[in-house]
Amino acid sequence: MRDRLIERILLLAAISAVSMLALITIFIFREGLPVLVDYGPLAFITGTTWAPSQGEFGVLPMIAGSVVVTIGALMIGLPLGLACAVTLAEMAPPRVRIVLKPTIELLAGIPSVVYGFIGMEVLVPFIRNTPMLGGPGYSALAASIILAIMVLPTIIGISIDAIEAVPRSYREGSYALGATQWQTIVGVVLPAARSGVVAGVILGMGRAVGETMAVIMVAGNSVQIPHSVLSPVRTLTANIALEMGYASGAHAQALFATGIVLFVISLGLNAIAGRVRDRKRVTVAAPVATSGAEARAELLGVEPIRAPELGGLR
Amino acid sequence: MNVPTSATPRAWIGSRTAQQLARVALWGATTLTVGVLIFIIVFVMQRGLGAISWSFLTDNPQHSGAEGGIFPTIVSTLYVTLAAVLVATPLGLGAAIYLAEYTTETRLSGIIRRGTESLAGIPSIIFGLFGFAFFVTALGMGWSILSGGLTLGAMILPTIIRTSEEALRAVPREYRHVAQSLGASKWEAIRSVVLPVSAPGVMTGIVLGIGRAVSETAAVIFTAGVALRTPTSVFDSARTMSVHFYTLTMEGISDEKAYGTAAVLVVTILLINVAAYSLMHRFTRSLR
Predict the structure, then answer these.
(1) DSSP states of A87-102 as a string?
(2) For residues A15 and B152, what is the distance between their CA atoms, to the nearest angstrom?
(3) Measured between CA atoms, how close is A267 to chain B, in angstroms?
(4) CA-CA distances (angstroms) from residue A45 to A38, A64, A221?
(5) Which of A125, A174, B156, B170 could bond to A188 as cystine, CB 3.0-4.6 Å?
(6) Which residues are paired to A56 by β-bridges?
(7) Distance between CA B94 and CA B100 in Å, rounded?
(8) Is the ipTM value over 0.85, yes or no?
(9) Is B63 left (phi over 0), alpha (psi -120 to 50) or beta?
């Protein structure tokens, strides 16, 4: 009897997160939908003029801004993050790993305002004063670099998990065929860990799209479709945070409508990452260990072992 | 098997040279990443530690923070974070116990899991918008510690659920069986055996949640407000350290005070992370 009651109470707690999600959805839409409907959803998303005082609410420049800084962040963060994940999972001795892994996790803990501040103090002047770059410094490039650093822990953490989930026999199969460690990583380990890495990248994208304070501090925030990486941009998040303090009426509703766009993008990315991860579980469960390793090594184009090469086996 | 040819397409450099180059590049990237982190910490400390003194921590700010200390923002951060933890811990732990102990993979648990994951992926500015529309406006709590704490509580809920569930699942099945074979009911076994064993793991989640709450800006600025006074009740508006730091830099009030506040923030976050890590370490060792 008592156990039943406790189970009920725990169930209530368990649905708290889902209820919270529902509440957030309801309130964001309740506040933002009127202006979205009045102005026309298509006009809202494809309009290029954002002039709240004249009732013009086109958020295309902000969508473009978010897309540009996110792509930029991934172009820098993905190779760097993947390299770190491979090093930590495949190359680093355990003792080094034990120090480096929590150190990199620490990057995730640093407040975004501090990242933004460092960006303002170091990165923006650097971009402004470098002859090859120039411009105002407050730019899509600055935002991309800061975001790249901020999404690193997400990409690295999830990629390490994915790489570690690749069965050892895959690597052994590859080494047995005479592949070097690098050939094994590129030809066997990374393809096998692909879905996990992709999930990490998508979650990193979600973080980059959703980041607010650090971006506001370095991106320049002018409402324009960026024509180069050195132009100032305003992201969806920045649009909300910059104007929320003084907006009222339709203007405030338009900010909530901006929130709807952001909300839908975030949930979408999250759902895709979840899908990709679920697919991984299925492939790993499939009993393909040895034959899989052989197949992969074959794909890799490793030459079959000949007698004289045996000495070179790792 | 393919017929072996002496020159495979990628043989433009020897496989051993490629291995050496890759090694250098990979370690280079890792060094760069760690270097960036060290640079950030050293940069903030070098410029900020000088501004920190006892009076900086215990004095009230003057002229919007251009002079004086940051005492009210420290108190506000503590209150808002405490409120968030008080809201999120019972809910998060309860949810984790339900997911780990009371359910198998059913449709309902699938929905709960998906919902929790989605909540974790929502940008903090959306939490800020929601908190403003719901707690501040609809429930009439105004800009207050309560509104800020509830908003942050919702935000750190997924962290606490996930970490606690992992901690509970890490406790070996036998512990429960032994307790129940000694006559304990399911709940008694959980309460007196599973929870104490998993406590450090659960604490890790709570500490990580505290870290997120302390460093958050976007979600609190529109819910707890920006009042620069020491709050005396949960209905008072409060400015946390992160928000204060943001205001100092964006309005160009004082570089010195901004660096000082940043240093306090970073030291706090470092301590929180060390605490989380050592708790996790203790937990994994205790189960070995």
Answers:
(1) IIIIIS-HHHHHHHHH
(2) 18
(3) 6
(4) 13, 10, 18
(5) A174
(6) A51
(7) 10
(8) yes
(9) left
Nearest partner of A67 among A272, A230, A226, judged by Cα: A226
Report, as ranges of residue numbers, the positions in chain A whose pLDDT lies below 70.
280-314
Residues 6+ apart with CB under 8 A from A293: A169, A170, A172, A173, A174, A188
CB contact under 8 A, B269 and A301: no
- A314 part of contact set with chain B, CB < 8 Å: no
pLDDT, tens digit, 9 for 90 and up, residues B137-189: 999 999 999 999 999 999 999 999 999 999 999 999 888 989 989 988 889 99
Which tokens is B87 given? 């809201």
Contact A158, A200 (CB under 8 A): yes
pLDDT digits (tens, 9 = 90+) for B75-112: 999 999 999 999 999 999 999 999 999 888 788 888 99
For the record, the structure tokens of A62 come out as: 């902000």
Q: How many Cβ pairs closer than 8 A exist between chain A and B?
A: 258
Question: What are the backbone dihedrals phi and psi of residue A233, each rounded to the nearest 5 degrees, phi first?
Answer: -135, 160
Residue whose C-alpha is closest to residue B223's, from B46, B87, B99, B106? B87
Q: How many residues does chain A have?
A: 314
Which one of B2, B126, B214 has the shortest CB-CB distance to A262? B126
Measured between CB atoms, which of B25, B36, B262 is closest to A117? B262
Read off the tokens for B24: 């250098």
Closest listed residue to residue A200, CA positions, set A237, A151, A165? A151
Residues 6+ apart with CB under 8 A from B103: B109
Comparing C-alpha atoms, which of B276, B262, B257, B142 is closest to residue B209?
B276
